[in-house]
Write a structure and sequence with these properties.
Elements: H1 2-26, H2 28-35, H3 45-68, H4 71-81, H5 83-94, H6 99-122
Length: about 120
């Protein structure tokens, strides 16, 4: 049962980050605001697209690893990828975002990713 929960959570996280990435490509301005650091009206398009591609790639990579290499490989990837939301926390704090957004969204995401990684690595 625990392995089903771990795999289910890993799939949900992978799909969620893909959706977030697509959103950054389609509606970059509102996506940046939802990230916690609003974009400048005339100068951030390339960086927001980079974030979108990064997120899509991370989600696809996690799902491919889960499907083809199993929970252990996906767990190791997720453990390493936990650095991304931790970095996002720092970015939000350093660029005028709120502590609520930094810790409530990005750090919380890191905690969830860490928990799923541990589940994948131990089941």
């Amino acid at each position: 049962m625990l392995i089903a929960v771990a795999y289910g959570m890993a799939v949900l996280l992978g799909l969620a980050i893909i959706v977030i990435g697509v959103r950054f490509l389609v509606v970059p301005g509102s996506s940046a605001a939802a990230f916690g650091v609003p974009a400048k009206k005339d100068g951030d398009a390339a960086y927001l697209a980079v974030k979108g591609v990064r997120d899509i790639t991370c989600g696809v990579t996690g799902l491919v690893l889960l499907a083809l290499a199993g929970g252990h490989a996906a767990g190791l990837f997720m453990l390493a990828a936990t650095l991304i939301p931790l970095g996002d926390t720092v970015i939000v704090l350093r660029h005028g975002g709120t502590k609520a957004m930094a810790f409530g969204v990005h750090s919380a995401t890191a905690v969830v990713m860490l928990a799923v990684a541990v589940l994948l690595l131990t089941t």
